[in-house]
Amino acid sequence: MSEAASIRVALADSPALLPSLAPLLHQWLPRQRWFAGKGRPVTAFSLVSATEILPVDTGPVTAGTGTGLLHLLVRVHQPATPERSPDDCYQLLLGVRSVLPPRLAPALIGRVTEGPLAGRTVYEALHDPRLAELLLERFRTPGTLGALRFDRSGPAIAADLAPRVLDTEQSNTSLVYGDAYILKIFRRIFPGTNPDLELPLALAREGCGRVPAPVAWFEAATATEPLTLGVLQPFLSGAQDGWQLALRALAEGRDFTEEAHALGRATAEVHTALAAALPTPALHRAQTEHLAAAMVRRLEAAAQAVPELVPYVPGLRTAFDAVAALGHRARDRAAQRVHGDLHLGQTLRAADGFWSLIDFEGEPARPLPERRRPQLPVRDIAGMLRSFDYAARSHRPWNADWAARCRTAYCEGYARAAGADPRGEPELLRAHETDKAVYEVLYEARHRPDWLPVPMAAIHRLAAADD
Ligand SMILES: Nc1ncnc2c1ncn2[C@@H]1O[C@H](COP(=O)(O)OP(=O)(O)O)[C@@H](O)[C@H]1O
Ligand SMILES: [Mg+2]
Q: How far apart, in Å, are the Cα atoms of 442 and each of 79, 263, 446?
């Protein structure tokens, strides 16, 4: 056993490690944007795994004490609510130094006062270029390190690329390496392969060029299922995201139909490839009724939380009843894996106009098994149509026509590539748009009340569209 490995076992197995970090994590964790348990007290932490990616010097602190990189999976215990699990698992990458240089001050987590790291400062390792480079180095040489397993696919990974943390951090943290790669570090970790690795790998196998193919990834090797921790992909340098492009088009009074048409094609190509790559179970009558019933349940739950929805419930229900009625007709529909959270912000247009889709995680708030379940592709289409509406509504004066034209162009682009127009089954499209708008109402009421009028306008329209 190497010296590094024997140190690793000592620190990782130390029962004092987590208790000594707990006071700092209590302060720091709830302030992180990706921490999903805000507003509920943290009652305890427990350690899932600890791995030294760069061995931590646990001897007496001296001027020469080196930098360490500690990888932790920590379970955070909180009181359960009807919607939230009591203990989420988070991925932490901690830099450990005796003294933190001033340039890393914004990354500070705190100073440890007891236990094996006593006297050392711990900080967000991803903000330390040296440690971020080291992480890329690990991907270059696949294999197992402590609880972690590094894998890669395709050509060798370039070295010596300067890292930077993307400031668009939402539920994850992304690092860009020299405009060549982007590494997405998942923060909340669920058992099972993350669809943001699974689907891009399947699409790459299928030869679909619409999604950047993973070049490397790492997982926690647990006894049961692997836990996906991060994915490295080519960085589409110079590409712009669809949401920004749509807002700019609106601000400049420009039409967006050419882009919407191209996005429809891109979506259809991804759907076709996913259907070819992964199982496509038939939705029989029982499953179709089940789908409609789940939408009704979500509507009822949302109406309980947001009183503004209540007057619209009967009108909206007709959308879901129409889907349940479809189940009585003879035709079965094929479900398949889909993007799961498709909107303009999940699309990138290269300088030559080629559109790619990114971020196949699905809706992060939903449990992983639900996100990985095959669904009707119209779900993604509804997501993109809602996104055109959001873009149009975020611009003053409101340009209803702009969104309507995008909608037509997107569906036409989709039909051209897929061979079937999503408007051909209006019941399914309306129900999925309604389900999405209901979700948006709940989200905006909780997080961004100023935006509530946007989905409420759609609710008004969808409740009246009793066809
Ligand atoms: N392959 C890529 N090339 C260029 N930019 C990317 C790439 N993947 C992601 N991005 C940028 O990073 C942002 C966040 O990535 P995403 O995978 O959507 O993460 P999140 O789960 O935080 O939404 C995107 O909006 C995009 O601007
Ligand atoms: Mg995203």
A: 22, 27, 6
Ordered by where they begin, the domains of the chain are 3-125 (no CATH), 133-234 (3.30.200), 240-463 (3.90.1200.10)
Banded pLDDT at 39 (limits 50, 70, 90): confident
Q: What is the DSSP letter of 446?
A: H
What predicted TM-score, i.e. pTM, was given to this entire model? 0.93
pLDDT tens column, 245-295? 999 999 999 999 999 999 999 999 999 999 999 999 999 888 899 999 999
Centre a 10 Å sphere on the Cβ of residue 352 and count the other Cβ atoms it contains. 7
CA angle 287, 293, 298 (to 5 degrees): 130
Pocket test for ligand 1, best of 215, 358, 363 (most atoms within 8 A of CB): 358
Nearest bound ligand to CA 357? 1
Q: pLDDT digits over 90-108, tens only?
A: 999 999 999 999 999 999 9
Q: Cis peptide leading into 397, omega within 30 of 0? A: yes
